[in-house]
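A further point concerns the way the authors explain their paired sequence and structure data. Each protein is reduced to its one-letter sequence and a matching series of backbone shape codes. An entry of this sort, consisting of the sequence and the corresponding backbone structure tokens, reads as follows:
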Amino acid sequence: MNLTLEAPRLTARDRCDRCGAQAYVKVLLDAGGELMFCAHHARAHGDALQSVAAEVIDETERLHEKPQPVED
């Protein structure tokens, strides 16, 4: 049996640690802990974050998704 685990999806409740906007990037730090960023601040601090990140979960592609209609 194969199990496929997806990275946890960021929701509208996840907020950027820099400005409070919706977070689309989650950085798990080598030293422990995590940081969350909006797409703008993730790009602005991306180079510095790479040197301290154990993992980066980037969901910025969701910014370009078209909403799906809800079926009743």
